[in-house]
Design a protein that fits this description.
- By secondary structure, the chain is mainly beta.
- The protein is built from no helices and 26 strands.
- The strands form 6 sheets. Strands 3, 16, 17, 19, 21, 22, 23, 25 and 26 form a 9-stranded antiparallel beta sheet that branches. Strands 9-8-11-12-14 form a 5-stranded antiparallel beta sheet, with no helix packed on it. A 4-stranded antiparallel beta sheet has the order 2-1-5-4, with no helix packed on it.
- It is rod-shaped.
Length: about 325
């Protein structure tokens, strides 16, 4: 019987508590291993973000927090210098555009101006600070409202220096609309471990489900299963899989031991790659019957556009009972 686990995720970003998000994860008869209570990392903008987990049971969660850059409300300031460049004498008009690490940008700031003299070589411009900005474009012109060239501040800084004549800076067209926003924390997939709490058995040649692993659409996974199995005389561990329709890539490797020997145990190996889930892996009867031996199965999956469940199944030959030992597991990450 399936049961629904509720995973409530709160995201802490820069000390601000974002309203909780929730996800429902279907599970089947397995022991659920606890997740860490906090997951965090450094974002591409160099800042540290954390996802704090509440009621953190084993499962899958995905959060997305989109924060728009706030348009700069004040004008930049400029300070001329008598050295460090070749800026010509005259009026210089400035507007600042904040840009985040994903390339999203704000509307231009209000305009300001600085008058340079014949002895002025450069202008230091300080842009108004915008939260989450990676750097700033400083747009320049010789007359008000005519900004068509820009230079950029160093990464992480809101202060830059114009050392070249206006027309020698990068040419472009200043934007008239802002980007929608930037993603600070995007889809997060927690490792999941599914452990058999009791022995699995099957005495038929028709596969039945051992493990069920939920998967998201358009997402890549590695699913690794391992443990011990035994089969009655004439039986086998015939492993199969199934999952959502039209996967983009399915690569697998299955190894199981079929005979015990002190020096030279016998293993069988099945592997392949393509776009179909593997089925009917190993229909060779065990040499050593009714004795636990190891198995190891890895499935590398790039799922298609349909979310659903990947199932790992077991079958045997004829009616010779297959048993998979408690503690055997699959882990998806």
């Amino acid at each position: 019987m399936k049961r629904i686990l509720n995973l409530v995720v709160s995201v802490l970003a820069l000390g601000v508590l974002v309203p909780a998000l929730s996800a429902q994860i279907p599970q089947s008869g397995v022991i659920n291993q606890p997740l860490p209570q906090q997951v965090g990392g450094i974002g591409p903008d160099g800042q540290v973000y954390y996802a704090a987990l509440v009621h953190a049971e084993q499962g899958l969660f995905s959060t997305s927090l989109t924060v728009g850059l706030v348009n700069p409300a004040t004008a930049p300031t400029g300070v001329p210098s008598y050295n460090g460049g070749t800026v010509a004498a005259g009026s210089n008009y400035f507007e600042c555009v904040a840009v985040d690490w994903a390339g999203n940008y704000t509307l231009p700031s209000p305009e300001s101006s600085v008058v340079t003299t014949a002895f002025t070589g450069s202008v230091q411009v300080t842009c108004p600070v915008v939260a989450h900005a990676a750097y700033y474009q400083v747009w320049v012109a010789a007359s008000s409202g005519a900004e068509a060239n820009y230079f950029t501040t160093p990464a992480g800084a809101n202060i830059g220096t114009m050392s070249l004549p206006i027309a020698s800076n990068t040419a472009g067209t200043i934007n008239t609309t802002a980007s929608a926003g930037m993603v600070l924390i995007y889809g997060v997939q927690a490792p999941r471990k599914f452990v058999l709490s009791a022995a699995y058995t099957n005495a038929t040649a028709t596969g039945t489900t051992i493990f069920t692993i939920p998967v998201l659409a358009s997402t890549s996974y590695t699913i690794h299963c391992a443990g011990l199995y035994k089969a009655a005389s004439g039986g086998a561990f015939t492993l199969g899989t199934a999952g959502p329709a039209s996967p983009t890539l399915v690569t697998y490797n299955y190894v199981n031991q079929t005979a015990l020997s002190t020096a030279a145990p016998t293993y069988l190996n099945y592997n392949g790659t393509g776009t179909s889930y593997p089925t009917g892996l190993d229909t060779t009867a065990v040499t050593t019957a009714a004795t636990y031996m190891p198995f190891d199965f890895t499935l590398m999956l790039t799922n298609g556009t349909t979310a659903g469940n990947v199932t790992v199944t077991g079958a045997t030959i004829s009616t010779n009972t297959l048993t998979v030992a408690p503690g055997s597991y699959c882990q998806a990450y």
